[in-house]
Design brief:
By secondary structure, the chain is of the alpha+beta class. A hairpin with a 2-residue loop joins β7 (53-59) and β8 (62-67). α2 (113-132) runs antiparallel to α3, α4 (145-163) runs antiparallel to α6 (183-200) and α14 packs across α20. The protein is elongated, with a radius of gyration of 35 Å. It starts with 10 loop residues before the first strand and ends with a strand. It binds N~2~-sulfamoyl-L-arginine and zinc ion. The site of N~2~-sulfamoyl-L-arginine has 16 residues, from β21.
Length: 971
């Protein structure tokens, strides 16, 4: 769940019990996170969706939580256990939303006004009564089923009586037909009676379950009443109308003025949304307030009520029933509400209109519909660039607003469209990229939900599918097929939940259209814009600690906290850049878009979470201010990353994204112990080899994820290696371990201060370093070899930060002046309850002596674990990079003779020439003392060189020249 309230760790509690087999026993914190409870313990953060809470019970100084998994968790510690249990009851037992989607209620026709009022009166009266009540019991009493049944029965009979005042037979006949059509409604009220009894008599431990059963039936009652009314209308219209009496009176000369009185000539009965006026204030003035949420009251009003509201200076906007035509909504909508944000439907300035006009005005833009929603809105995709779709050009897809309320994401997409559409473009780079890529942009992935956030509920998230239980909406970012429903962490099987994943994978029209579109135009890269939190997330997102085989490519594009890709320049933002991380670093979910796009298509898919959600101390969250300068800042902040995606599409593995500057890594070492984990280019897997020292290691290939560009090799290491080399066709990378420490008793190279100490759980051996709040863990001095390309600090880590807040964090710093000054080289933040391998790189420290220091600023001790730290110098010996002109010249190539002579490429500088074989082993070396030295001759027979490919490397004063040398001697 995205945080609706300001992120916090919550109140300290002691926890006892198992959750799905995971032991949570220990000290921890309890906090509300939207529709869930977050329990933070040493073992990680467990999210308990409120929908999975069956009941709570206070006893013997403890509060027991009964969960739908069958688990019972006991919380103790906080003094106000009673209050806590009441708060949970309040959150779990909310009154169901019952009026907003009712068509019959909103269609009080001219001919049926009185009957309409009479029919709905019992329900609306009960609803009004419920609004005045608080606590589940009182709510239940307000909707007391037997009272409701009696009143409904009376109302139905009086409908017949009014039409056949002096005709008992006609009345009985009509009554029978009315009651027949009301059968389903009356049956539902009967079920309500049962559910009410069961709730009131329920044990604590199933109380919330009974409440949910009861609420579902309440909704059912309202919906059946609504359907019943629509069904009765023609029947009543066919019967003599009570108004026929008036016609008679009219003929008798009664003044027509009577008909113009507000009540009599009642126009539509509509639900109006009134902001900034307390529900009680409205109620005290006799308005029919049927609901209120986040400062908005819903009033069912006829024309008289509306006139009275207007007279009081209150303007409200109508809530539209589903199916209300776009034209009508636009007519009714208050045009002054939004000046920049575009609703979907608005015929003057809506998204559909805007895209259409862009397409008409720009030859580079083509507008397409890739599907339709349940409410029949088009899923509009814009293609920018050449008009045709060419297999020669890589596809890049941008999407926005899977979640209805995240308007700033659609703004980002619309601004990107406008920017890229310009022809000729003032941006030469964008211009040339556009010509060489097929770029597709879907600015509103969830148009029904999006429109609903303009008409009715600003904070609506899901789509607008009516669910079987009467609730509405599926979270489209939980509906994709990859790992769908894997567990209930971050996605829910309950239809009413904000993160409801739908009845089946790809059950939603929007999801299916997006999937089919991706299959037709498989993207090399893609981004699905969301808001908020200021993150740049990439797969995987469904399991803590899992990292993609293509991590190097994801990381080069998304950057690191030290070299970020997106700089946040919004005034007052609480972060300087977007934190790049695997999606689980925010929280785990399943069925999200990026996991599917990457898993199924190998697309490098990103979730940018636009904006931090704060301006100074003001929290705006999903409601980004409607301010042109600020919106344009979001766009310009995020444009470089979008252009980098376009740029990288030709060859992601070798891209060097401009905004991060982080090179992608064809070959990388993730860990040297307890397992050697290395990545090699996918295309070179067949020739890959790993050695520890000179001993070849047996390895397995990681089976997780597609590994489209790089594959991970896994080789368990019995002891900590001192030297690892990874070879593949394009060259050999040598990793020399300069320092290692695993917090074991025999490890003495790193020193802990403050709260850092040896602790558990360990990744390997018996201990890990554990700290997190103010302590440091420092290395002794480390001499970096002069020929190291880079030094990486590899470490296994877990930490209990906050996915929404970067302030709790851990840092790795380096000092090259014996501890006088320190420079940050790596940072960890967010939620990482499972160990995974992290890395920070030091560039420019060759030949120097450095110290390293981990510093915990999580605010809480024992919240950061570090294990198996390895400081590694790399050297890369490529095979394919041969700058021919400057290479050492060989007397012949391929070499057929017994010797070969080299020409020295560095004039009179001294240096050396080395020859390596295909596996990276050096087979020959010669020192060179400049031009005056003798010719450089390699005696092949003497060194036993066999036929094959060799790499000749000449080095002098930090410069390197290489030559690929073929030996093909006839014997
Ligand atoms: O929960 C979501 O769908 C996204 N956040 S939002 O606040 N916009 O709703 C983030 C999804 C990223 N994926 C995972 N965390 N697995
Ligand atoms: Zn979102």
């Amino acid at each position: 769940m995205p945080a609706m309230d300001e992120p916090r760790r919550g109140i300290p509690v002691r926890i006892d019990g198992l959750l799905r087999g995971r032991d949570l026993t220990g000290e921890g914190w309890l906090a509300g996170r939207g529709e869930a409870l977050a329990l933070t313990t040493a073992a990680g953060v467990a999210m308990l969706p409120l929908a999975a809470l069956e009941g709570v019970h206070v006893e013997r100084g403890g509060l027991d939580l009964y969960l739908s998994t069958g688990d019972v968790l006991r919380l103790s510690g906080p003094e106000q256990l009673g209050q806590l249990s009441q708060a949970l009851a309040r959150r779990s037992c909310v009154f169901p939303e019952v009026t907003l989607s009712l068509r019959g209620l909103g269609s009080r026709g001219r001919d049926s006004g009185e009957a309409h009022d009479e029919f709905f009166a019992p329900l609306l009266a009960a609803r009004r009564e419920a609004e005045r009540s608080s606590g589940p019991e009182a709510l239940c009493a307000a909707l007391d089923a037997s009272t409701l049944r009696e009143r409904m029965d009376d109302a139905l009979r009086s409908l017949a009586a009014a039409r056949y005042r002096s005709d008992p037979a006609g009345r009985r006949a009509l009554e029978a037909r009315i009651l027949e059509r009301a059968g389903a409604l009356l049956g539902s009220i009967e079920r309500l009676e049962r559910a009410q009894r069961e709730f009131l008599e329920s044990e604590d431990i199933v109380r919330f379950v009974r409440w949910r059963d009861w609420s579902a039936i309440v909704r059912d009652v309202f919906q059946r009443a609504d359907a019943c009314w629509l069904d009765l209308r023609p029947l009543l219209a066919g019967a003599p109308s009570p108004r026929s009496r008036w016609r008679r009176w009219l003929r008798l000369g009664v003044s027509v003025a009577v008909l113009l009185l507000p009540g009599a000539a009642s126009a539509q009965h509509v639900t109006i949304q009134v902001s900034r006026l307390p529900a009680d204030w409205l109620r005290a003035r006799g308005f029919d307030v049927v609901g209120s949420e986040s400062g908005v009251a819903y009033v069912v009003a006829d024309s008289g009520d509306r006139a009275r509201l207007a007279a009081l200076g209150v303007s409200g906007s109508p809530v539209f029933a589903p199916g209300t035509s776009a034209r009508r909504q636009a007519m009714l909508a208050d045009a002054s509400v939004s000046r920049i944000y575009r609703p979907f439907d608005d015929p003057q300035r809506g998204v559909a209109f805007f895209l259409d006009s862009i397409a008409r005005a720009n030859p580079r833009v083509r507008l397409d519909t890739i599907g339709r929603t349940l409410e029949n809105r088009p899923l509009l995709v814009v293609k920018i660039g050449e008009r045709d779709d060419s297999p020669e050009r890589p596809n890049v897809i941008f999407m926005a607003t899977y979640h209805a309320r995240e308007w700033v994401a659609t703004e980002m997409a619309l601004r990107l469209i406008r920017y890229l559409a310009q022809s000729p473009s003032p941006d030469a780079r964008a211009d040339s990229l556009i010509q060489r890529r097929d770029v597709w942009i879907l600015p509103v992935a969830n148009p029904d939900g999006y429109q609903y956030t303009f008409s009715t509920d600003r904070l609506w998230r899901k789509n607008r599918r009516p669910n079987a239980d009467g609730s509405v909406g599926v979270d489209l970012n939980r509906n994709h097929a990859a790992g769908w429903g894997l567990d209930d962490e971050g996605s829910s099987p309950s239809p009413a939940s904000e993160v409801y994943r739908g009845p089946a994978p790809e059950s939603e029209l929007e999801t299916r259209a997006i999937v089919a579109f991706h299959q037709a135009h498989p993207p090399v890269l893609s981004a699905s814009y969301h808001s908020y939190t200021g993150l740049l997330l990439y797969p995987p997102g469904n399991t803590y600690g899992k990292v993609a085989q293509d991590l190097g490519v994801f990381r080069s594009l998304a950057g690191t906290d030290v070299h970020p890709s997106v700089i946040d320049r919004l005034p007052g933002s609480n972060r300087s850049h977007y934190h790049p991380a695997p999606s689980w670093n925010l929280y785990t979910t399943n069925g999200d878009y990026t996991d599917w796009a990457y898993g199924a298509l190998g697309a490098l898919a990103f979730t940018p979470e636009l904006t931090s959600g704060f301006e100074g101390t003001t929290y705006y969250g999903f409601e980004f201010p409607e301010d042109e300068t600020k919106l344009q800042t979001v766009f310009t902040d995020n444009l470089p990353f979008a252009l980098d995606l376009l740029d990288a599409a030709a060859d992601p593995l070798h891209a060097r994204p401009r905004s991060s500057g982080v090179p992608s890594e064809p070959v990388a070492l993730e860990s040297a112990y307890p397992i050697v984990r290395a990545r090699v280019p996918a295309g070179e897997l067949a020739t890959a080899a790993i050695r520890s020292g000179s001993a070849p290691l047996l390895f397995a290939i990681d089976t997780v994820g597609p590994g489209r560009y790089t594959k991970r090799l896994l080789a368990p290491a019995a002891v900590r290696p001192v030297d690892v080399s990874v070879t593949a066709a394009s060259g050999t990378s040598r990793f020399q371990i300069l320092s290692d420490d695993g917090a074991e008793p025999r490890d003495a190279t790193w020193t802990a201060t403050g709260d850092f100490a040896r602790g558990v759980p360990a990744l390997a051996g018996i201990a890990a370093w554990v700290g997190g709040n103010g302590g440091t863990l420092r290395s002794s001095p480390i001499a970096v070899p002069g020929d190291a390309d880079t030094v990486s600090v590899l470490f296994w880590t877990r930490y209990l930060g906050d996915g929404f807040d970067l302030r709790p964090h851990g840092e790795l710093r380096v000092s090259a002046d014996d501890g006088l000054s320190w420079t940050p080289v790596g940072l960890v933040a967010g939620s990482a309850p499972a160990y995974y391998p992290e890395r920070a790189d030091l560039v420019g420290y060759a030949g120097r002596t450095v110290r390293l220091s981990f510093e915990g600023s999580f605010g809480i001790s024992q919240s950061w674990w570090l294990d198996e730290i390895q400081v590694v110098a790399h050297r890369r010996v490529p095979v394919d990079v041969v700058p021919v002109a400057a290479a050492p010249l060989a007397s012949e190539n391929p070499v057929r003779g017994a010797t070969v002579r080299f020409a020295w490429p560095f004039g009179d500088s001294t240096g050396e020439i080395d020859v390596y074989d295909f596996s990276g082993q050096r087979v020959w070396r010669s020192g060179v003392t400049g031009v005056s030295s003798l010719p450089i001759v390699w005696d092949l027979a003497g060194s036993g060189a066999r036929n094959g490919v060799y790499l000749v490397v000449a080095r002098s004063q930090g410069r390197t020249r290489t030559l690929k040398l073929f030996i093909a001697r006839r014997r």
